[in-house]
Amino acid sequence: MTLGRVGIIVAARMSSSRLPGKALLPLHGLPMVVFLLRRLRGARMGEVILATTTLAADDQLADTVVAERVPVFRGADADVVARYVGAAKQFGFDTVARVTADCPFVDAELADWCIARTVEFEHFDLATTKGEFPVGLDLEVYRADCMAALDASGQLTAADREHLTLHFYNHPDTFAVRHIAPPPRWTHTERRFTVDTAADYDDAKALTEKMGRAEFPISAMLNAIQ
Fold first, then answer.
1. 3-class DSSP state for residue 112?
2. Per-residue pLDDT in tens (0 to 9) along the chain, 226 residues
3. What is 6-224's CATH number, 3.40.50.2300, 3.30.720.120, 3.90.550.10, 3.50.50.60?
4. Where are the domains positioned within the chain?
5. Which of 108, 178, 211, 217 is the most exposed place for a label (fewest CB within 10 A)?
6. CB 71 within 8 A of CB 31
7. Alpha-carbon span 46 to 97, nearest angstrom
8. In what order do the strands lie in the sheet with 47-53?
9. Cβ-contact 31, 58 below 8 angstroms
10. DSSP code of 94?
11. For the chain, percent helix, then strand, then coil, each to nearest 5?
12. How far is CA 154 from the centre of its chain?
């Protein structure tokens, strides 16, 4: 399937309820969002941007990312669908790969692997790693025109709008949801790599210290925790 122009859109905001301000908490000497963006910057199959909100609370976040020379889109707060649709429209993306900033260990290799797998599908509305990859090594790919049509349809609930791809999962008879298998070289683990809580953040810091640098292959990280 032809993907057209692909955007890797990272979602971040400062108003996390469980761990406020986590996007700028330090991870290996870098704000966590910058840690993630640097891991993504070598992606060959998509352009990396940040999508945050227009709230004043996110001004520092936006400024930090602009200083990293990563483009920033600012849009709705709780309406994540509107924010992503606006970002795709502004940057002219035909296909979107969605990454969230609470998954700091996602990297360019993972993004390229997932995007390349979607090309192999004859058709898809959403291609996802959920249920296949370790939690926190997450990426979802969808067609921008499909999300824009949903945004305009009037069908989405408030929960759908807050949780970008929820409507796809809840309507499998309507949408083609495909699953992406992880690279064969990855060691299996049940460990979570998302940063939702202070305990998750402590685990992320300890893991990064163990790896000794910010930019390391996920396969090496998975081997190191065995």
1. helix
2. 799 999 999 999 999 878 999 999 999 999 999 999 999 999 999 999 999 999 999 999 999 999 999 999 999 999 999 999 999 999 999 999 999 999 999 999 999 999 999 999 999 999 999 999 999 999 999 999 999 999 999 999 999 999 999 999 999 999 999 999 999 999 999 999 999 999 999 999 999 999 999 999 999 999 999 7
3. 3.90.550.10
4. 6-224
5. 217
6. no
7. 8
8. 72-75, 47-53, 6-11, 95-100, 140-143, 126-128, 177-179
9. no
10. S
11. 40, 15, 45
12. 25
Q: Which residues contact 196 (CB under 8 A, 6 or more apart)?
A: 16, 18, 19, 102
Tell me if residue 211 falls in helix, strand or coil: helix
Residues in CB range of 105: below 8 A, 6 or more apart: 36, 39, 136, 137, 193, 204, 207, 218, 221
What does the block give as tokens for 19? 């761990």
3-class state of residue 154 by DSSP: coil
Amino acid at 162: E
Residue tagged 């999962």 (tokens): 169
Take residue 65 and report the two structure tokens written for it: 């990312």
Which of 119, 115, 107 is closest to 218 using CA atoms? 107
Place of tokens 């599908």: 121
Element (H, E) at 102: none
What letter would DSSP give residue 51?
Answer: E
